[in-house]
């Protein structure tokens, strides 16, 4: 891969990660709720889910999903249902005790929740199917190129998600009282449900 192509990949990766969606909403919610360090579990989960998507595309299953409406629809609606469920959970946290319980949620729980947010987004897989081949030079070994592309996408996304959680964490003092925390939870829930609605109209 030439340096020019890699820079094009780098710019594309930044734009992809900066685009609003369930991942960004999840990262910002984690930053508001747990702070930068506490949000690390969520960021790691998002990266794991993203890595699984990249792996699926790299081994060729992405093309199968892209050409199988039934499989795409199945994964899509699983993702929609999961995001709506998460959004409802945030809305149901009406009492201070619920908020404290959310704050005290174990790291592994946050990790798996964030992982599922990305894994159950089939639109991401189809997008990667369309994106990755654009940066592969068939005249050179594909394995190393796929490794470089995957590493670039993951590192950029990790930086952006960490930035989102850090930005949100800097606003934590504004959400210190229970009422403000309650509204933060509701806004996060609404953002996740909105992401689910956007996902529900995704098509091949």
TrEMBL record:
Q: Does the keyword Membrane apply?
A: yes
Per its UniProt record, what Pfam families does this chain match? LysE
Q: Which domain of life is it from?
A: Bacteria
Record's keyword terms, sorted: Cell membrane, Membrane, Signal, Transmembrane, Transmembrane helix
Coiled coil start-end? none
Q: State the annotated membrane topology for this chain.
A: Multi-pass membrane protein
Subcellular location per UniProt equals: Cell membrane
Per the similarity annotation, which family is this?
A: Belongs to the Rht family.
This chain's protein is named Homoserine/homoserine lactone efflux protein
Which organism does this record belong to? Marinobacterium maritimum
